[in-house]
Amino acid sequence: MISFIFLLIILGFITAYGLSILSAGLEDSDRKIPIYLVFWHALLAAAYFGYAIFNRSDSRYYYYKASSAFLGPNWFDYYGVSTTFIDFLTFPLVQYFGLSYEAAMLFYAWLGLIGFLLFFITLKENLVTRPTFFGYDLLTIILFLPNLHFWSSSIGKGSIAFLGFGLFFYGLSKFGQRWLWALLGGVIIYHVRPHILFITLIASALGYLFSSSNVGTWGRVAIVLISLIGFYFIAADVLALTGIDEEAILQESTTLSRRAFELSKATSGVNISGYSFPLKLFTFWFRPLFFDAPGALGIIVSFENVIYLLLFLKIVNPAFIFYMLRSDAIIKTSAITFLGVSFALAQLSGNLGLAMRQKSQVMILLMFVILKFLDEKQQKIVAEEQRRKEVLATQLEQIKASRAREVSRRTLN
Asked: I need a labelling partner for 142 at 20 to 30 A (CA). Which of 3, 180, 236, 248 fits?
């Protein structure tokens, strides 16, 4: 408990200082959003802690491994990717800094919070207008969806992966100034989930290669080259972690089907092995939906999924396709990353609990794309209203001038 209080004070001061810097560059109407984000994330972190007390949680297993020094006393004995990387991060927190389980949870929740603040900056600086959803600010709604906060508030991959995505897209938003942040985000994503970075690099290469807006030729060349170099260095880890080698690629579909069937045996599982691929994607993106909600948590997530579904329906039209063709590089990257990760993870979404946890890290990318699409529509509406006002003002001036000439003519007569 002492380590928890001590860490809470330290992180509190760091967060307050960061918020003061962030708020200085915001409009008055937006300055309270980061503060509310801090308290909302803290509330959901506390909710996850309560959830972990009464349910099985990976966070306790990670902490146990670090506290028992199961691989030995040397920190770099734990270095690796995927699950091993979480052991690597947690080991010094427990062994060197003496953090309790509660304090370690606090630290990981704080890392997830940083991811949210980075996404807030990224979304804010890419919007011209503020689209609404049933009369409420859509940006605020997206940032405060509970499932995103819940699964990025504990010891584990969720908070670290979300931080990595936040850094990566924060860097891409102004790549010329923040390329180092994008690189750091990519390194983090790689260590947590190499296969997800593989998809993200492909998305970045395609997004910037086929976009001429907001990025120069040399910038596009640099990003494509970085992506190709990244492919080379992480390909072996991707193949190893997905269980694929040069002689076994043809067996992958069978392996995925078997894993989906095994996951469907769980209490919160749904057997998707016989589903069509579109139905698998729908399950991953929008379920549970009340009727198949696994417990109280599933009911809460169902409300969130309804929001996702309603927002998704806004882009199911030909105008969205034309928008994507001319969209910025960061939007193309977000969309391709979201689709690529979804295609990969939807194969294993037979367990709804697993789907709720995994999709939380990428749904914000879809929300980013939808926000920008609605932002462009709103810009057109605003521009049209402005044009009408200018036309009306011109007509009024013409009428006034005509009346003035008529008055002058009558006076002379």
From this structure: 180
Alpha helices for 264-362 (secondary structure H): 277-286, 295-313, 318-326, 329-345, 352-359
Residue whose C-alpha is closest to residue 305's, from 166, 184, 147: 147
Q: Are strands 136-137 and 132-133 parallel, antiparallel or unpaired?
A: antiparallel
Token pair listed for 90: 């947690």
pLDDT in tens, 115-150: 999 999 999 999 988 999 988 999 999 999 998 899
Question: What is the pLDDT averaged over residues 61-70?
Answer: 89
pLDDT band at 232 (very low <50, low <70, confident <90, very high): low
Q: What does each C-alpha distance from 57 to 53, 62, 143 come to in angstroms? A: 8, 9, 25
d(CA 153, CA 161): 11
Residue 177 tokens, joined: 């100034």
State pTM to two decimals. Answer: 0.84
Q: How far apart are CA 348 and CA 82, in angstroms?
A: 17
Question: Rounded to the nearest 5°, which phi and psi values hold at 137?
Answer: -60, 120
Asked whether residue 349 carries a pLDDT value surpassing 70, the answer given is: no
- The whole-number pLDDT of residue 289 equals 81
> What is the DSSP track for 124-137?
HHT-SS--EETTEE
Quickly tell me which residue has 């929001």 as its tokens.
307
- Tokens at 253, concatenated: 């579909």
pLDDT tens digits for range 363-396: 899 999 999 999 998 888 888 888 888 888 888 8
- What pairs with residue 269 in β-bridges? 351
Contacts of 154 (CB under 8 A, 6+ apart): 45, 48, 49, 52, 57, 58, 59, 105, 108, 109
Q: How far is CA 398 from CA 151, 394, 402, 407, in A?
A: 62, 6, 6, 14
Tokens of 350: 């037979």
* Residue 288: cis peptide before it, omega within 30 degrees of 0: yes
Q: Where are the domains of the chain?
A: 1-192, 196-373
Q: Which of 189, 133, 125 is nearest to 160 (CA)?
A: 189
- What pairs with residue 351 in β-bridges? 269
CB neighbours of residue 248 within 10 Å = 11
* pLDDT digits 0-9 by tens, 289-303: 877 766 677 788 888
The length of the chain is: 413
